[in-house]
Task: inverse folding
């Protein structure tokens, strides 16, 4: 038999105290969860650094190298035609050709691996990966490569430099009996790069404002806009005007280490002497460092309507 307990002032107060303690406990747990995503604390400053591959970490396009291995001509024209037709996402042209172009029907996985070995990497890619792996107390960097190129190509090109599980490229599936490409599992181009980036942020517990992305071309356009919109940091490594308008900084160099300059300046707030000292610790001296600002300006002749009379100001300046 249940005993009836009157709601006395003391019992009500105790119940309120208990509820308050439970709420405080829940608030503490939620705060601990949020703390895992806060990277600006004094104890840890962790950053996710994501990079494109073709012409960002390399000098040439892996699709062009692959075409040369296969003896296929007109690769640039095919890519240009697909881009103009807007048939696929920007950067996914090679993936489309590998799956649907009859000339690529004889391609096998070993050709992709061979193409990766023939890709000419930019200077000091190994030092860049080494720097991000070691970090710089109290800063830590998680380095990943996100590319629209076939994952087999990128992993082959960066073997021994970047761990295979830190590389996200276009994932292809092969027929078990013929070795032919039978399907495309995932394409890391356009919004596909954004999806990979968000997955990494969640997995690594790194907030969007501590995400750094670097790239060179049209396939990086959407991901850079995405990173900027969430207060991340973007670096362009080409003279493409459409990318220069979006990226926070543009760096041109034949050395992959050059991307560290804006990171040191804008994120770590270092001066030039500190930056030079770090590069010297890797046995490198900055030979040239030209800081320029380029304004792209075009004018169109204004044709004044016949009925419009020139003003006094326009007559004086004519």
Result:
């Amino acid at each position: 038999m249940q005993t009836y307990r009157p709601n006395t002032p003391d019992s009500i107060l105790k119940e309120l105290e208990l509820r308050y303690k439970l709420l405080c406990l829940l608030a503490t747990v939620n705060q601990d969860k949020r703390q895992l995503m806060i990277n600006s604390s004094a104890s840890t400053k962790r950053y996710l650094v994501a990079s494109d591959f073709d012409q960002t970490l390399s000098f040439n396009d892996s699709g062009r190298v692959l075409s040369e291995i296969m003896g296929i001509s007109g690769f640039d024209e095919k890519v240009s035609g697909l881009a103009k037709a807007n048939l696929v996402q920007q950067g996914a042209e090679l993936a489309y050709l590998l799956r649907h172009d009859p000339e690529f029907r004889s391609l096998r996985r070993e050709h992709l691996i061979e193409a990766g070995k023939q890709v000419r990497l930019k200077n000091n890619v190994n030092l860049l990966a080494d720097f991000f792996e070691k970090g710089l107390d109290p800063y830590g960097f998680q380095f990943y490569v996100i590319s629209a190129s076939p994952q087999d190509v990128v992993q082959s090109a960066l073997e021994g430099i970047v761990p295979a599980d830190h590389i996200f490229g276009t994932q292809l599936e092969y027929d078990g009996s013929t070795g032919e490409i039978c399907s495309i599992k995932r394409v890391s181009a356009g919004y596909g790069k954004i999806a990979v980036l968000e997955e990494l942020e969640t997995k690594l517990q790194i907030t969007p404002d501590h995400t750094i992305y670097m790239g060179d071309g049209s396939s990086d356009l959407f991901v850079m806009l995405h990173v900027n919109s969430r207060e991340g940091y973007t670096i362009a490594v080409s003279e493409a005007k459409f990318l220069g308008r979006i990226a926070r900084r543009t760096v041109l160099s034949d050395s992959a280490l050059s991307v560290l300059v804006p990171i040191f300046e804008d994120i770590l707030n270092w001066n030039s002497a500190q930056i030079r000292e770090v590069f010297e610790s890797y046995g490198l001296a900055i030979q040239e460092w030209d800081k320029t600002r380029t304004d792209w300006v075009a004018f169109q002749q204004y044709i004044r309507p016949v009925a419009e009379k020139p003003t006094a100001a326009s007559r004086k300046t004519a």
In short: The beta strands are 45-51, 139-150, 167-174, 181-186, 211-215, 233-236, 249-250. Residues 39-43 have pLDDT under 50 and may be disordered. The chain has 13 helices and seven strands. The domain at 45-281 is CATH 3.40.50.1000 (Rossmann fold).
